[in-house]
Amino acid sequence: MIPEFDVDISLDHDMETLRTGLSAEDVARGFTDHHEYECLGLPSWEEAAECLKEEAAFLERADKSEAPDGVEAILHELQDADDVGYAELMAYTFCWNDVGVAGLSLALSAARIATFYSCSSGLGVSHHADYPTVGAVPDPERASLLARLTEQNGCGVDQVYGRWYIYGRSIKDMHGLGKAVLAARDAFDALPRPSWTDGLAELLEELADE
Q: Tens digit of pLDDT for each residue in 41-53?
């Protein structure tokens, strides 16, 4: 099964105090300290779609599991059986984001919304969030669209210091939001690219070589 968490869902955000003016360096190096989260760069919509596809299959298996936290149980089984395969799956498919929020994180990045945090939560002690959460900073144009998609998919937003913490009662809700962002790709692509995207890929290459 996939656990659900008792959390009130609301849209608590303020466009006037939304953080703006992020630079490529801010996004590449991290603009807030959140458990060593690494920038996802500028993934394509195809990469986001592939991640969501793999995640959907994972969640389907987890939902059928008799374990209280099916995702964690399946991941532990995979790691025990094939440590290399587990590492490749987490690195190349989910970009070391937790299963259940990886798809949303990739989709937001493909929509050119800066992400800075993600945690699927769970019943074990390895997670630091109380419920599934993804941290993001949309520009004002993308914020309106993202807020509407978030509400339509039963998720919430908590804004802190201009940053958005998008959350849900279950990773199934977060996955659904990721699919909705992907489905709205044309609407996101029609918006002007945020200034922080300029030079980000080159800067990430430089940082990787340090």
A: 999 999 999 999 9
Cα separation of 92 and 113, whole Å? 20
Q: What is the pLDDT of residues 21-36, one digit of tens each?
A: 999 999 998 877 665 7
As a whole number of angstroms, the distance between CA 158 and CA 172 comes to 19
pLDDT band at 161 (very low <50, low <70, confident <90, very high): very high
Task: Give the separation between CA 187 and CA 181, rounded to whole angstroms.
Answer: 9
Count of Cβ atoms closer than 10 Å to residue 137 Cβ: 25
Whether pTM exceeds 0.85: yes
- Measure the N-to-C terminal CA separation of the chain; round to a whole number of Å: 43
Cα(180)–Cα(164) distance, integer angstroms: 18
Cβ pair 151, 5 in contact under 8 A? no
Contact of 39 with 30, CB cutoff 8 Å: yes
Query: 159 - beta bridge partners?
Result: 164
Length of the chain: 210
